[in-house]
Amino acid sequence: MSSRRPPRGEYIETDTGNKVARKATLVGTQNIMLGGKTVIQPEVMIRGDLIRTIQASSQSASGAAPNSTAVSIGRYCFLSRGCCLRPPGRLYKGAFTYMPLRIGDHVFVGAGSVVQAATVGSHVHIGAKVAVGEFAIIKDYVRILDGTVVPPNMVIPSFSIVAGQPARLIGEVPEGGHEAFELRDIYKTVGNNPQPAPS
Amino acid sequence: MAAPTPYTYIQCPCSDVSTLSHPSDPNSPTGTEADEDDRTFDPRAPRSNYSLYPLEYLLYCEDCHQIRCPRCVAEEIVTYYCPNCLFEVPSSNLKSEGNRCTRSCFQCPVCIGPLAVTSVETKPDPRLLAPDNIAAPHSGPYALTCSYCHWSSTEVGIQFEKPNSIHAQLAKLRNGGTTRLTAKERKERRRDPAHRSATTEGEESGEQEDLDLETQFANLKAFYQNQLADPNSADSGLAALGDLGFSSPTSLSRIMSIYTGGSLQDKKAKSRVGAMREALEPDEGLQVANLDESAAIEQLQSEGHDGTACTAQRVDQPPHLGEEHLHGRGRFTSELRPIPYLLRTKRSKRCPICRHIISKPEAKVQTTRFRIRLVAGSYIPSIAIRPLSLSNGGGSASGAAAVPGALLDPLRPTHYLLTFKNPIFETIKVTLGAPSKTPGRFASKVTVLCPDFEIDANTDVWDEALKEGGGGGGGGGERDRERERRRRKREEGSQSNNNHNQLEVGKIWERGRNWVSIVVEVVPASLRVEAGDGPLREDEDVLEIPMFVRVEWEGEAGGDEVGSVPTRDRDTREKRELAYWCVLGLGRIRQS
Ligand SMILES: [Zn+2]
Ligand SMILES: [Zn+2]
Ligand SMILES: [Zn+2]
Ligand SMILES: [Zn+2]
C-alpha cells in the first residue's frame, strides 16, 4: 500500500501462507481460524476472546463449525492497518452471548474499519473507516465504499455497491468487475519479502 | 464525481450516430475509417458524459464484434428478489402483490435502515430479535424498530399482535392504529343494509359521512360506471342529441374515437361526459374536503422544520395507506410509515443490434454465477496508466508526477507509462492516435512516443480457463506455483530491461508476456485565465487525453468466438479489427 519498505521480520509467515504482522493484536488466537494466504497488517485487532457462551441446540446438532470458533477467515483475505474484527453479541434466551463472525475468501477490509457482521461472503471489498454493524450479512461480490456505516442486521445482497450513513445501495457491480475482487496479487506485495505489484 | 486518477474510460460505439444508422455491416469497419480519422473526440463535450465507461462496465458482442455499454444493451429481468430476505418473488405474484416484499421486510421511513420486529413490552432492543432468534421470549404487542436511528413504529401508533406476517398486519392498519378495511370488508359493508341505513340516519342528523380513501374511490368508480353504462344517464343535457342516437355516453365516445383517433376525442368527450352529472352524496363517492389546516399549522409551529418529511422520505412512502383521506396527507416525519423493501432484479443483457444475449446470470438468487458473461475486458486490451519517474540520467525529464494523485505542474514535461495488456489468444497490433493538443481552453501538449506496436498473445490458456471455471473457489497449489514461475520469469526479464529503458521515439518502453508499456509525454497547460475570459470551470483543470485505439488481429474465420479455442489452423484465419475512442485521465493541473 505505502511505498515504505517494512523492516525485515515485521510479519510472521505461517505454513499455510498467512502473513501476520507482529504488531497486530490477536486476542484469543485459539478461537481464530485462518484459511491461509491471509494478510493481517499492523495494528489490526481480532477479538477471538469473544466466544459464544450459550450453545444453540440446533447448532450443535448440525456440527457445522467447532463451537469455540469466534472468528473464521477464509483464504486470501487482507486486513488493513488498524481494522478490527469483532464477533457480534446479543441477548439469547434472556442471556447475553457472542456469536461467531465468519468471513469468506478474498475479503479486503480497509484501514480503520470495524466489522461486527454475522457473515461476510467471498469477494467482498470493505473500504476504509467503515463500520459494519452487528449481525449484518454481507453476501458475495459486494463493495462497501469508504466511510459507510452498515446498520446492525442489514443484509447486503450480491453485486451491491453501498455507501453512506446508513448504508444505501448506490450501484451494482458490473459484469466486468468481478475479477477486481481477487486479492492474490496484493497478497504478494506484503510480507517480509514483498514483491512489486504486477503492472 | 471525483474519479480516481489516473483513469481510462472507453467510448461505446452507440454514441456514434453513424454506427447506429449502419448496424448491418459491423464486419466492415473500413467503411467508416475516413470519418474516424477526421473526427476528434472531445471528452469534455456534454454528450461525452453519457458514452464513456470504465472497461469493467462494458460488454462485448461476439457476433457484431463490437463493444456494448450499459446504455445501449437491452435488459431482461431474470429473477425478482427481496434484497433483505433474499427470497425470490415469482413474476405472477408481482402482478397481484406489487413490486415490494410481502414478508416482514421493512425499511425505516426516516433513515432507510432495516427495521426489526421487537416486543413493545420489554424495552425495544434490536439485538433481541435477530433473524435466527426463534426461541427468544416473546410477548406482544410488537413494533418495528430501526437499529440505526432507533425510530419505532409506535411513533405513528402502529403495533402488531403477532411477530410474523407483519406485511399483512400493516396493510390493515392506518397511522394511529385504526383499522383499514380490506376490499372484501368494504364490499360487505356496502351491501350490508344495516350499515347503509345507519349512514343515512347520520346524514339526516346533519353529519357528513366520513369515507375512507378506498371506500371513496370504490364509490366514485361505481358511480361513474353506472353513469357510463346507463343509456339515459338521467337528467343530463343530452336530451337534444337523443334523436341522433348519441344519448348514451359510451356510444358517443365510441363514435368519436372512430373519427378522431384520440387527439380530438379528449376535448369532445369531456364536454359530453361533463353532461353527465357528478357525485352528490357519499354513496356516490362525494367527500367534502376538510380545509381546516389549523392542526397542521400548529404542529409545524411546535415541531419546526425538523419535524417535516423531506421529499425523498415522502417519495419512499407507499401511497395512500397511512391516512384516511387524500387531503392533508404525510407532511410530517411523525406520519411516516415503514417502507416494505423494494424488490431487486437479476437481469440478462442483449446486444441491441443482433439481439444475442451477451450477459445472463443464473436465475437462483443465492448464486453469483453467470451462464453467459461476455465482458469487454476479455476482448480488448486494458490500459493502465502510471506516472513515470526518471530518477537517473534523463536530464531535463523530472519525476514531477511520480506520486499518484499529485498535481501536475503546468508547462513542465511529464511522462506517463501506458501499459496495454492483451487478453486474447492472438497477437494483436495496436495503433494509437491522439491529438497533439488536448481540446478545450487550456490545451496541453501530448506526444505518444510509440503509437504503433504489437502485443504477444495471452498464451496461458490454462490459467484463464481455471479462472473462468473456478469462480474464485479452490484454485490449488499448482496454479499458484505456475503463477509464481511466470512472475519470476517476468521479473528477471524486466530487471534486465530496466537498464536499457530510454525515452526514444518509436521504441516501446517495456514488454512482457502479453503486455507492452509505452511512454506518453505531456506538457500540462498553464491554467492562467486571460483577462476577459470566464473563470476556471469545474474540472477544467483535469488533464484528459482523448486517444483513438485501433486493434488488429487475425482470428478464426467464420468462428464467432474471438478468443476461446486457439486452434492453430492458419488457413482459416481472417483479419479482424476493432477501433474506439478512449480518454486517459492523468490528473489535475496545479493552479498557478
Ligand atoms: Zn453503448
Ligand atoms: Zn423480504
Ligand atoms: Zn432509522
Ligand atoms: Zn450483436
Automatic annotation (TrEMBL), chain A:
<dbReference type="InterPro" id="IPR011004">
    <property type="entry name" value="Trimer_LpxA-like_sf"/>
</dbReference>
<keyword id="KW-0206">Cytoskeleton</keyword>
<dbReference type="GO" id="GO:0005869">
    <property type="term" value="C:dynactin complex"/>
</dbReference>
<keyword id="KW-0963">Cytoplasm</keyword>
<protein>
    <recommendedName>
        <fullName>Dynactin subunit 5</fullName>
    </recommendedName>
</protein>
<dbReference type="Pfam" id="PF21711">
    <property type="entry name" value="DCTN5"/>
</dbReference>
<comment type="similarity">
    <text>Belongs to the dynactin subunits 5/6 family. Dynactin subunit 5 subfamily.</text>
</comment>
<dbReference type="InterPro" id="IPR047125">
    <property type="entry name" value="DCTN5"/>
</dbReference>
UniProtKB/TrEMBL annotation, chain B:
<dbReference type="Pfam" id="PF05502">
    <property type="entry name" value="Dynactin_p62"/>
</dbReference>
<keyword id="KW-0832">Ubl conjugation</keyword>
<comment type="subunit">
    <text>Subunit of dynactin, a multiprotein complex part of a tripartite complex with dynein and a adapter, such as BICDL1, BICD2 or HOOK3. The dynactin complex is built around ACTR1A/ACTB filament and consists of an actin-related filament composed of a shoulder domain, a pointed end and a barbed end. Its length is defined by its flexible shoulder domain. The soulder is composed of 2 DCTN1 subunits, 4 DCTN2 and 2 DCTN3. The 4 DCNT2 (via N-terminus) bind the ACTR1A filament and act as molecular rulers to determine the length. The pointed end is important for binding dynein-dynactin cargo adapters.</text>
</comment>
<keyword id="KW-0206">Cytoskeleton</keyword>
<keyword id="KW-0007">Acetylation</keyword>
<feature type="region of interest" description="Disordered">
    <location>
        <begin position="177"/>
        <end position="210"/>
    </location>
</feature>
<dbReference type="GO" id="GO:0001725">
    <property type="term" value="C:stress fiber"/>
</dbReference>
<feature type="compositionally biased region" description="Basic and acidic residues">
    <location>
        <begin position="182"/>
        <end position="195"/>
    </location>
</feature>
<protein>
    <recommendedName>
        <fullName>Dynactin subunit 4</fullName>
    </recommendedName>
</protein>
<keyword id="KW-0175">Coiled coil</keyword>
<dbReference type="GO" id="GO:0005869">
    <property type="term" value="C:dynactin complex"/>
</dbReference>
<feature type="region of interest" description="Disordered">
    <location>
        <begin position="464"/>
        <end position="503"/>
    </location>
</feature>
<feature type="region of interest" description="Disordered">
    <location>
        <begin position="19"/>
        <end position="45"/>
    </location>
</feature>
<feature type="compositionally biased region" description="Acidic residues">
    <location>
        <begin position="201"/>
        <end position="210"/>
    </location>
</feature>
<keyword id="KW-0963">Cytoplasm</keyword>
<comment type="similarity">
    <text>Belongs to the dynactin subunit 4 family.</text>
</comment>
<keyword id="KW-1017">Isopeptide bond</keyword>
<keyword id="KW-0597">Phosphoprotein</keyword>
<feature type="compositionally biased region" description="Polar residues">
    <location>
        <begin position="19"/>
        <end position="31"/>
    </location>
</feature>
<dbReference type="InterPro" id="IPR008603">
    <property type="entry name" value="DCTN4"/>
</dbReference>
